[in-house]
Sequence to fold (102 residues):
Amino acid sequence: MTLVSQLAALAAIVGTGVVYGTDVFCALVQRPALARVDDATLTAVMGNVHRFADRRMPAPGILGVIAAAAAAGLAAAADRTAASAAAAAAFLLLAGWVIVRS
Fold:
């Protein structure tokens, strides 16, 4: 049971890391690069970026939230109090972020 909860925690970290990494890339690279282009180019590029991202990015985000909940439940079932509390806190923070962003 402990191994399964650890795998769920790993899936939560990877899923959330994909979303966070994408946000960091956009903030550090994409935004400054696109600040130097004309409005027509900016509109075309960002339209295409969002067209693809809107289809692909929900999957890792949903995986992160579900895996965090699973990790919390599985760690609690394995009587791992600290791991369960950490995973539950991660789940609550991720769920809160989803609510704020909606």
About this structure: Helices lie at 2-34, 39-56, 58-77, 81-101. The longest helix spans residues 2-34. Residues 17 and 64 are 8 Å apart (CA to CA).
